[in-house]
Design a protein that fits this description.
single chain; about 170 residues; alpha/beta; 8 helices; about 55% helix
Length: about 170
Amino acid sequence: MVLILIGMPGCGKSCMGRALSRKLKMKNIDGDRVIEKMTGKRLQEIIDDEGLEGFKKIEEEALLSIKGDNIIISTGGSAVYYESVMNYFKSIGKVVYLYCTLDVLKGRLGNLAQRGVVLKQSQTLEDLYKERCALYEKYADITVDCSGNAYSKYQSRVITAVKYLAQEQ
């Protein structure tokens, strides 16, 4: 089985991927770390050096390079911008959308300019949220609400969702 975690920056994709990896005995692959390993640079450095369009090309290439079975892929929040990537992910596994409310994300996120978030000039977190939520919903096989502070509670929700998805196969 291959699980692909999508959602906004700060929704918990990386943390959830690591936790699920331990509980489900699956390998975790963090898409952002794949990009950083491929380039030898942090995400924000890539954006600063290559611009958004250059970063997007690198990100798409990196995400399409991920292969394997019995893996959890924690994508960057912008993975949903690439139809080629999302079609590839849908062909190899099940996509789990980790949903969070905008208010929760505002509380979790620090300085977006230092996080390597793909933001257009003058785009706000609210703009980004509105733009991406429709894409997350479009590609999700299942959505899990990860709002709030009860990490163990929504970790259980994700595990329940994963078990449900496994039965569908």
